[in-house]
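FAQ: What does a multi-protein file look like?

Like this. Sequence, then tokens, then the next protein.
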Amino acid sequence: MRRAVYLSALQLAFLAAFTSLPTLGADDTVGEHSTSATTVYLVRHAEKAAGEVSDDPRDPHLTEAGEARANELARILSEAGIETIFSTPFHRTRETAAPLAQQAGVELTITPIAAGYSAALAQRIRTDYAGQTVLVVGHSNTTPEVIRALGVTTADSLALDESEYDDLFIVTLPPQGGAWLARIHFGAETP
């Protein structure tokens, strides 16, 4: 059994604030570039219905446990200042992001998975959302890819098992380059 670290909303906010360490104020810019760190939260979608109980086995909805996890994600990120939420077009990712999007008054930005998806999304976050706080809801394969594309070199060994749903990754992108990664767990522990 893996050892899990579960954080409260207050602890999560502290961790995000500590790892962001903005150079100046949150809204300060130099020319066109932000001088504040960009904070990217990344999660795999919550628990999905098994293929045999889903209307479309390729695009299942969340289970009851998945809905509870999506609500927990909204609760713990309620004070994180999420400004943009990226989701793939599948039911399970949109449903995972929906409670937080509604709570934060943020519309989902749907990002279809295509060739170069991870690199394109990472570049878009670095350029168009510099200095902001964003959430990316993806899949067991796309989440590690996006983390790597954001510049986390230690992500090479990162792998998500198909049965794991409780990982929450925080990537901090300081304005001067580089990337920091924190991995925590939220909601009910998955085996």
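And here is the next protein:
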Amino acid sequence: MRFFSLSLSSLTLALVALVATPPTMAEARSFSQCVASKWPAAQRIGVTRANFERATQGLQPDTKTTRLVNKQAEFVKPIWEYLDSAVSATRVKNGRAMLRKYSNVLDEIERRFEVDREAVIAIWGMETSYGSFMGDHNAVQAAATLACKSNRRNKFWSDQFVAAIKIAQDGHVPLSAMRSSWGAAMGHTQFIPTSWQAYAADYDGDGKRDIWRSIPDALASTANYLKKHGWRYQQTWGYEVSLPRNFNHKLADDKTRSLSEWSRLGVKRTNGKPWPRPSDQAYLKYMAGATGPAFLMLPNFKVIKRYNNADAYALAVGHLADRIIGGGGFAKAWPRDQRPLRRAEVREMQSLLTRRGFSTGGVDGKVGPNTRRAIRQFQSSRGLVADGFPSTKVLSELKRL
């Protein structure tokens, strides 16, 4: 579970060397001093001095975590390549097997939390491939490293560090078993420590919320998280839709409308079925511009994004959930002949747009609402389809002027 913008999206390919370099004596001293300075924060949340000393004795920075957090990824996977991996035939097959294996547990989870089982299983599949890889780091060490070595969001990571110690102190899992990702996301469904404190659930009533060794606890915790963030039971995440000719593509990412309003604009489900609840509110979303699939996103899509704030991740979870319960692939093909812009190319595009009077609100290499709006304005001025997609075609057109 990633609630921060350090990795930003599962789309980034971190091409890093993972050879550990031992810290110098000065670096080790600085790290130890930083770790020791976290004691007041630990004390405030109830960590005892003895447990703080036990958790931090001999603690060294995680060099792999340091390398990963400081690596600026330049290349981005196309959405279709990401989905090829995230919603692979193997992951769908294994998800169906897990749905059967834990059917009784999922019955109870649905009863308690009113969260659809396929969504819970899909998140488990996305986060750790159903528990096959929960990370090769320790949450205390990873969080301490990020708090003292990353120079980013130190307060946030300090909170994760002391929260991890408190989790172990309270007997939910031993320190040595607190497996995590390099970003301190823990267990089967990858909770960061403070989110574990707020949302982890004890499925079996043994007094522990053990998302590392108890699959029912992990699945219940995910269901509880989704429920607390507004999950709508027995409602889907969204629909793939077809658009009429001469559709106003500026309506994408604009605002929510009822499904019946979208119907009046000529938007239909690709499978031809009616809307189950025409009054549901949805917004139109492209993932690869107007030449790729289009989707009407319902409230549950945004709930999934609370787990990981990336459109690609949420689409993958929703699509995997659908496939696990027997749904098919998308009706419209992805534009596989295109490629996303590299970060440096996005910066170039933003500079060119701003220079030509289409303000992007800054040049940061990230495609947000302001950049998409500027792209649409430029596309409209050139008689192009105004879908706001940052394509190589848009960049070439800007450079040609």
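Q: Is there any per-entry metadata?
A: Some entries carry free-text notes. For the entry above: The beta strands are 137-138, 179-180, 238-242, 257-258, 268-269, 281-286, 294-297.
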